[in-house]
Amino acid sequence: MEVQIANSSHIESLLALATRTFVDTYSQYNTAENLRLYLETNFTPNSMANELSEKGSTYLVGFEEGKMIAFAKIRTLGTILNDENASEIQRIYVDKAYHGKGLGSVLMQACIDFAKQQGYPKIGLGVWENNSKAISFYTKWGFEKVGVHSFVLGSEEQNDFILLKNL
pTM for the complete prediction? Predict the structure, then answer.
């Protein structure tokens, strides 16, 4: 998989992939109404364009045979970590059709490399407390739980574990 920094030409593909992977990951745990509310707020062409141009926000996108199949959003300003020495992975997803091929690890390494290149000695993220598959993946990468914060999906407040890794 080839990983690159996203730009405005990627908005349409990135938005489609982000929507699809979010629904694939969370539809079984949340109501259709809460998913719809979340997607209508966070996954629109305008919100994606704003995120791509926002200072301190970077999307890494992964391609295989010219098709976007994975992405990660990294923040270096205004993170949930309250630590100026840490960057945050806000989203990291691989298209369901490509699961089991080690591409999540390729994308995670790209996130770590990006954080190091930007001068950050730590990287962290929030993960839904009931997403045991993701928690296991992050733990294997050396992330450790350092806190909890709330995350609102539609009209439901959920808990995310805050995980941190020294680089």
Answer: 0.93
In the chain the domains, ranked by start, together with CATH numbers, are 2-166 (3.40.630.30)
Residue with tokens 């298209």: 95
Which pLDDT band, with edges at 50, 70 and 90, does 155 fall under?
A: confident
Q: Which residues are catalytic?
A: 138
> Residues 75-109: pLDDT tens digits?
998 888 888 899 999 999 999 999 999 999 999 99
- Tell me the pLDDT tens digit for each residue of 4-55: 999 999 999 999 999 999 999 999 989 999 999 999 988 999 999 999 999 9
User: What single string gives the DSSP state of each residue in the chain?
Assistant: -EEEE--GGGHHHHHHHHHHHHHHHHTTTS-HHHHHHHHHHHSSHHHHHHHHHSTTEEEEEEEETTEEEEEEEEESSS-TT--TTEEEEEEEEE-GGGTTSSHHHHHHHHHHHHHHHTT-SEEEEEEETT-HHHHHHHHHTT-EEEEEEEEEETTEEEEEEEEEEE-
Distance in angstroms (rounded) separating the CA atoms of residues 57 and 33:
28
Chain centroid to Cα 164, Å, comes to: 14
